[in-house]
Amino acid sequence: MDAERIGFLFPGQGAQAIGMGQALHARHAVVRELFEEASSLLGYDLSDICFNGPADRLAMTEFSQPALFVTSMAAIEAMRIEHPEWLERAHLTAGLSLGEYTAVCFAGGFRFADGLKLVQKRGQAMQAAADMVDSGMCSVLGLELAKIEALCAEVREPGEVLQAANLLCPGNIAVSGHLAALARLEQPALDAGAMKVIPLSVAGAFHTSLMEPAVASLADALAATDISRSRLPVISNVDAAPHQDASDFRQLLGRQVVSPVLWEDSVRRMITEGVDGFLEVGTGRVLRGTLKRIDRKAKADGYGDE
Known about the structure:
This protein is α/β, with parallel strands linked by helices and 306 residues long. Helices cover 50% and strands 16% of the residues.
């Protein structure tokens, strides 16, 4: 990564994959120690789930969120050994949904152990909210936001939730809502010119009002956590603006689970703020894929996805 001002990006749920973090775990004692600390805090063997699955267990919200957080933070620890110069050039950071917690931790907003406890609480609260109703998410490829919003309004029945939830990049928007409404959306979306409508491997309708039951317990956990002013600005999913104050993190991380993720706007803001290269840290390549759709000239690399 040869950029002078690097934007560090951290993946969210859906990026998990069996084997995540295993190569770094084999290379560095500090990574092994981090996984051991995480397993002790969580009360189960996180490395076994990350390395061996099974896939359906790893995909469960209560496991995938800690797995992604720990794998990305483990990659940061490995980077301190292998590429410390990249860390010296960190300019801004952001994370997709769950990844925003990793970004705040990386930026110094809270300690690893506190961040992991928050993420565990978030995953449990979101899983519990998802278990209350048949809901989910899908990616709609090839349609613009205005068309997707119009289609959602057209097929949504009274009392149902169906809305754009992750505004990832041009032509790639994730929709959340009741499963019945998502099923009715597919054919009209294809008829309107969508290339694909792809169900996502998540437990429920994240970033909608259906996650409201998770907000109170998450707000309590955030209030009880020692949060500091961060050394780096973090671009929030909620408003696509940079934040460093502890009070902002408490408010925005609590609102995030019921608010659409403004990822495209966040990336554009990072470019405006002077980022001239992006580094996706942890497992997966989703974020690099969105970058090329947002700005073809954007330099992007990854670390930790081995």
